[in-house]
Amino acid sequence: MMSLILMVLFLIPMILIMHSSILFQYFYIIMYMYMLLYKSPSSIFSSISYMLGLDYFSYGFMLLTFLISSYMIISMMNFSNNFLYFMLLNLMMTFFLVIIFSSMNFLYMYISFEFILIPLIILILGWGYQPERLMAGMYLFFYTVLVSLPLLLLIMYMYMYCGSMFFGYMVFSSENFLIHFILIVVFMVKMPMYLTHYWLPKAHVQAPVSGSMILAALMLKIGGYGFIRVMYMYEYMLVKYSYIWFTFGIVGSLFISIICLIQGDIKCLVAYSSVAHMGMVLCGLMTMNTWGILGSYFLMIAHGFCSSGLFYICNLFYIRTMSRSFFINKGLINFMPTCCMFFFMLCAFNMSCPPSLNFVSELMILPSLMNFWSYSMYFFIGISFFSACFSYYLYSFSQHGLYHNLYTFSMINLLEFLCLFMHLFPLFLIPVFISTLM
């Protein structure tokens, strides 16, 4: 693992080379292939060094990190201003995400968990669109810091109690609900859970396209990944109080799915749909059985590609029409016909149509939900129905209708087609790979 981290660090001199974005792409792909071929978690932990290592959960998120970081560079190639500074921020976020997803030490994970907030806020403030980005950055900062400072005190207390900060040794048996709440709520805010989600639409709408991509694809997954890590070291209290978080997840997903239907901003609708999907992830994790946890894990991977692709294609519409409103972005099937198929497939996968990874993951989550609480099936049907409604609403309102300029042409370049294809391709490929393993 140290070799992989050093590979990321030694990319810093590449920033000094002008127009080195293509070289960055090559090196990210090299690291991706290195992970894929030589760092496979064939044992329980692989390549443990300096409190770092990989297991099956962190392996998928590491691969997702390198792919999304590469897509971010493609998405910002049209922005010529301060592109080298953007690549530095991209490299910093990649470095901290590698530390988060590979650390076996709780303190390492916590420090990287907090440090990644700095380049993300700089990205929102420096490359955001409207003046409201200042308030969005404040929302993101204070929501995270408010719940993270008590966690630092709790980590020091747990070190005194357990004598170690390794996840494998931190087995905690306290019955204090306050400790349970502090340990859980920090990851719930990051997911985000319903009622702690208000920072997400603000940050998504005001962030540039690369900021929205990394927020949707990776930042939300830190919450789910951290929750999986905490689950194994604090099982008793989680079994005892899981119904609380399960209720927030399943009711919140239903409410947010209805709220999506009244949005007038395309980017805001995609942001709220992320909250609904992460609510399903939370419900699957709360069941604490094999199918629920694996289904949530696959849903996080699938949502990372699908939501990132939706934000990217919405930004393509925004660049050309200079608006994100549903009332202006109409008739885009005439304005940009070559994007219609990609947008349709992303919307279809967003509502978990087969043969996507989203469909496989929700098919795994459903029996675990019914095993946890039989009446959750009715909530699941409602969530699936409204998810289909807002995905159809997103596609039909923007693609159909009369475009205000009344002419037809397509101006999507090959690089943008490549980025859209690379968002969709893993959603087809991973279910095939899973079926071959089974």
Automatic annotation (TrEMBL):
Q: Where in the cell is it found?
A: Mitochondrion membrane
Q: Which UniProt keywords apply?
A: Electron transport, Membrane, Mitochondrion, NAD, Respiratory chain, Translocase, Transmembrane, Transmembrane helix, Transport, Ubiquinone
TM regions (residue ranges): 7-36, 83-101, 107-128, 140-160, 166-189, 209-228, 243-262, 269-291, 297-319, 331-352, 372-395, 407-434
Q: Which GO terms describe its molecular function?
A: NADH dehydrogenase (ubiquinone) activity; NADH dehydrogenase activity; ubiquinone binding
UniProt membrane topology term:
Multi-pass membrane protein
Q: EC number(s) on record?
A: 7.1.1.2
The UniProt entry lists the main location of this chain as mitochondrion
Q: Give the top-level enzyme category.
A: translocase
Q: Which residues form the NADH:quinone oxidoreductase/Mrp antiporter transmembrane domain?
A: 103-391
| Pfam families xrefs | Proton_antipo_M
Return one Gene Ontology term, BP aspect: ATP synthesis coupled electron transport
Q: Name one GO cellular component term.
A: mitochondrial membrane
Q: Which domain of life is it from?
A: Eukaryota
Q: Which reaction does it catalyse?
A: a ubiquinone + NADH + 5 H(+)(in) = a ubiquinol + NAD(+) + 4 H(+)(out)
Membership in a protein family: Belongs to the complex I subunit 4 family.
Its function, per the record, reads: Core subunit of the mitochondrial membrane respiratory chain NADH dehydrogenase (Complex I) which catalyzes electron transfer from NADH through the respiratory chain, using ubiquinone as an electron acceptor. Essential for the catalytic activity and assembly of complex I.
Q: What is this protein called?
A: NADH-ubiquinone oxidoreductase chain 4
Species whose genome carries this gene = Macrosteles quadrilineatus (Aster leafhopper)
